Amino acid sequence: MVKVIMESWREGLLKISLTKLQQEKLRMSLVDSKTNTDMLLDDNVIILEIEDLNIAKEFLEEAERIGVNCKIEE
Fold it and tell me: Which alpha helices (DSSP H) does 1-74 contain, by range?
């Protein structure tokens, strides 16, 4: 199990893209994805547990591109 930690966000964060990324890449529900996005915007740290390291890396790369400061913890 790999943890992706979404620590903070940068100006210009693509909020809808972040919600969709969680749905598509991590197969999360719309409600859970939107909740995570909203919590991140409220300056909460979000920890996502992902089984596949490659999926975690892909998620991290895309999340960084759309404005999330995050890291992987194995």
Answer: 15-26, 30-41, 53-66
| Cα–Cα dist 11/17, whole Å | 14
37-70: per-residue pLDDT in tens? Answer: 999 999 999 999 999 999 999 999 999 999 999 9
Q: Are 37 and 23 in contact (CB under 8 A)?
A: no
User: What's the rounded Cα separation, in Å, for the pair 51 and 67?
Assistant: 23
Handedness of CA 50, 64, 69, 32 (dihedral sign): negative
Any idea which residue has 């909020």 for tokens? Answer: 15
All residues at 6 or more sequence positions from 18 whose CB lies less than 8 Å from its CB, including other chains = 33, 36, 37, 40, 63, 66, 67, 68
Ramachandran angles phi, psi of 63, nearest 5°: -60, -40
